[in-house]
């Protein structure tokens, strides 16, 4: 790993393109994480440590010979393993009862699903015959166990989570909470170890009444920092200082702040992508050719500011279609800054075959933009409900798709290392910006003090970093969504970072009769059966909501369940371990926190 003097932390990603040995950073060593090779020799198998490295830490990763886990000011001599075992004894007595109850629920759910199948009333999705070889499939221990296995009862005191403000994340949080044997609270009260909030106003409300060691699911300032304009301001500043280090962000201009000459040069002889500052789900995004069109589109979408990003006109394609990766990153805390990358994620594929942009096809957004909201209503949207199949579907599993790309001749290991490199560098920069450590960047502008936006986002009442928030740098965490695209040469480009990535697990079918469900692995099928009770219409009643312009059915999406259950399950497990260790007066290193989970440490100051 490389030490970054600007932060004092250790960065676990590969080297940048300007360095001589890109990809020499710490690689994951869990069971089936990372890019594909044949399962018996994948890059995620444990390897001999490179020269200059120490012994594995807790079995979860290789540690540098220099210590990276610094104890707090009053270090405890108790080992983290001993602490976790000690504090877990109180919970272990109920483990058998909990497991028995869970097994009973699974049997009941299985009988209900079987009855629905025989009656023809349950919606089950059709699956094409697969001829993929064994190496193209995710190993059961790498995926099924990751989403269905109950965490060991040694993890510490029983946790509780408040989901009263979780919105669309509530379903996946409830499923994971039950899997981890957490207590779920649904009223707006202070009694919970962890509160899941969304907006800055909700976060401020919880911070003002927060109890010691209580965790919050948002980091103050991250909401606005991940907006298109603030993000562009930060990384243009960093690119000027270290252009080779941050060479993975497409050239970006700010409208209307930047001179017209600079905006014209971004478009050049090709096209640019205009994105509104607070746009989400593809709303207000346009391909533009010149300044006149930029001005016309700005008037059309009624926004004060936007960014203009150079268009990657020769992207890597999947069977002739443009695609990108959605990967999930957990920032566990700012003090110390600790960042983890989930092994599971999504691949979003355009529904229309790719053509280089021209006046004739600019209106065909489904051929240029991968957003699910834009593509789900297209007649060519293809449902893929097998998380182990990376060769088909408009939405696919990340690891399965990497294996598919490897079979097509791409260096999937290098693709994964570039993703780790980008997420590690960007997360470190975001953390330093929120802490006010980036010279020339004012963090006070990241907080909507008295700024009215909507009735539910009427502005905050306390200034950024108010003393009443004591301990927020240590107790606030954040799950971010990174959108990464590769060009035809295999170079990764970071398109944007989402501060509130969707954790919804349903998909829509424009149909009045339920489709058939494919034969899934036992663990996946159990998740789908459990999720069925949470989706609108229970998967069998026709709906006419705004999710689709035609009458439709809502069904659990196995692809979303695979990625998001693994992401949230691992994130909450890491938080639980950190919470338990601190409550016992001990300190857990990032490697110990991630041990046995489908997460990699990608940046650490601990």
TrEMBL record:
Q: Where is the composition biased (Low complexity)?
A: 86-98
- Would you tell me the Gene Ontology cellular component terms? ciliary basal body
Top-level division of the source organism's lineage: Eukaryota
What InterPro entries does the database record attribute to this sequence? TTL/TTLL_fam
One GO molecular-function entry: ATP binding
**Which stretches are tagged as biased composition: Basic and acidic residues?**
16-29, 100-130
Record's PANTHER family?
Answer: TUBULIN POLYGLUTAMYLASE (PTHR12241), TUBULIN POLYGLUTAMYLASE TTLL11 (PTHR12241:SF154)
**Name this protein carries in UniProt:** Tubulin--tyrosine ligase-like protein 9
Please give the organism. Answer: Hemiselmis tepida
